[in-house]
Amino acid sequence: MKRLTYLLLTLAVVALSACNNDEPTPRPVGPQPSDEKMSAEFITDVWALWEWSAGLADGIYCYMVMDGESGRYEMWDNLSSMYSNHTTGSFTITKVDERDYITGTYDNGVGDWNDSYELDIFNFEYIDWISQTTGEVMRFKRIFELPEIE
User: Fold this and answer.
1) CATH 2.40.128.370 for the 36-142 domain, yes or no
2) What is the pLDDT of residues 126-141, one digit of tens each?
């Protein structure tokens, strides 16, 4: 009987020690830019919409060429049409309470973007654009060169 009690006590100790604490595990985040200039330098590249919390159907794409130094962008997408749209414009990155936000304007006379986005950077490979009105998240991946667009 002592052996059974000892065995049960040992199993209880092992089970309790295997439990983790209730603190949430922080998600892995790469180094964050320390100022607006760093953010502008970081965002300069070619980006592809990789994931979207609203869902991303097969064949849907969005590619952006961002130039942080000039604050200019070019975008090719078929998000709202079966045909490719080419859009150009300007953007601004601002820092509020150690967080980066991006807003922009279209060159085609439509005006400002409908939303402002918080930028969350992961390992200098991905940027999450978090909508400030809907909370939707668009994850862009750095792809270095623009693919051929039909």
Assistant:
1) yes
2) 999 999 999 999 999 9
- The rounded distance, in Å, linking the Cα atoms of 120 and 100 is 8
Instruction: Count other Cβ atoms within 10 Å, centred on residue 53.
Output: 14
Can you tell me the mean pLDDT for 57-68? 93
The shares of helix, strand and coil residues in the chain, as percent rounded to the nearest 5, are 15, 40, 45
Using CA atoms, how far apart are residues 111 and 69, in angstroms rounded to an integer? 21
In sequence order, what are the residues at sequence separation of 6 or more whose Cβ sits closer than 8 angstroms to the Cβ of residue 25?
none
Distances in whole angstroms, Cα of residue 90 to Cα of each of 57, 106, 145: 28, 7, 20
Domain ranges of the chain: 36-142
